[in-house]
Amino acid sequence: MSMEYVLERQLAVAYGYPSTTGSRPKFVVKAGSTAVKNGSPNVKRKNWLTDELVRKGILAPDPRNSSLWVFQQDHEFSNASAAVDVVNDGNLSAPQYWKNTTTGRSLKEDLAAIP
Predict the structure, then answer these.
(1) DSSP three-state, residue 47
(2) CA 98 to chain centroid
(3) Cα–Cα dist 98/37, whole Å
(4) At what angle do helices 80-88 and 47-55 cross, to 10 degrees?
(5) How many Å is the Cα radius of gyration of the chain?
(6) How many Å apart are CA 97 and CA 56, to the nearest integer?
């Protein structure tokens, strides 16, 4: 699967792609993608994962917008949901929010179409 997907949440825009096959593939978010620093206080979040990425230098403050992080390099997550949790700074049903940049279909739809 060499399709690219985009996720837009608030001011954040992230690009990525599945890096393995299966119903819950690993998912790479590309360098230059942005992530929300402070999402809604009403949703669960994985602060530990964002904190770890900041410590490792994978996420850094976006010099263009103080409310965003920017990915300094490509980063592979265990699945698309973990990626969206960081980009959105809170839980979402990831496969339906990642949209194919060519077809506009969701990652969920594309995964369901694989025999």
Answers:
(1) helix
(2) 8
(3) 19
(4) 80
(5) 13
(6) 27
Dihedral angle at the C-alpha atoms of 52, 89, 106, 71, nearest 10 degrees? -50
Tens of pLDDT along the chain (115 residues) come to: 468 999 998 899 999 999 998 888 999 999 999 999 987 666 556 678 999 999 999 999 999 999 999 999 999 999 998 999 899 887 777 788 999 999 999 999 998 887 7
Give pLDDT, residue 1: 47
Q: Which of 113, 34, 22 is nearest to 75 (CA)?
A: 34
What pLDDT, on the 0 to 100 scale, is given for residue 91? 76
DSSP 8-state class, residue 30: P
**CA–CA–CA angle 88, 99, 74 (5° rounding):** 60
Secondary structure of residue 94 in the 3-state scheme:
helix
Q: Please report, for residues 26, 54, 85, the alpha-carbon distance to residue 34 in angstroms, rounded to integers and kept in the order given.
A: 19, 13, 13
